[in-house]
Amino acid sequence: TVPTTAGGIAIPLGAVTSPGDFAAVNQDSTNFITIYDAMSGNPIAQLDAGKMCLIPLDPGITAPAVKADTAACQMRYFIVERGDISPTP
Hints:
Blueprint: E1 9-10, E2 19-26, E3 33-36, E4 43-47, E5 52-56, E6 65-68, E7 75-81
Antiparallel strand pairs: 1-6, 2-5, 2-7, 3-4, 3-6
């Protein structure tokens, strides 16, 4: 669940220590989700209601965050370790 918390919330990375590629689906039918490069950071994408995305993360992004627009949204996602499937710059 993605809340409307000011500054966003960190995306749990699990065992990933160097995020490479990020894929997500906004399962809400009305509200969008903003994806940030860090908590209280810079927005890097807007995931509209019902849409999906695949974002190759810049190597400097180590703790991406998300924030829902008007109401909490359900989001499914996966993040892979840099180098697993993404090219290393």
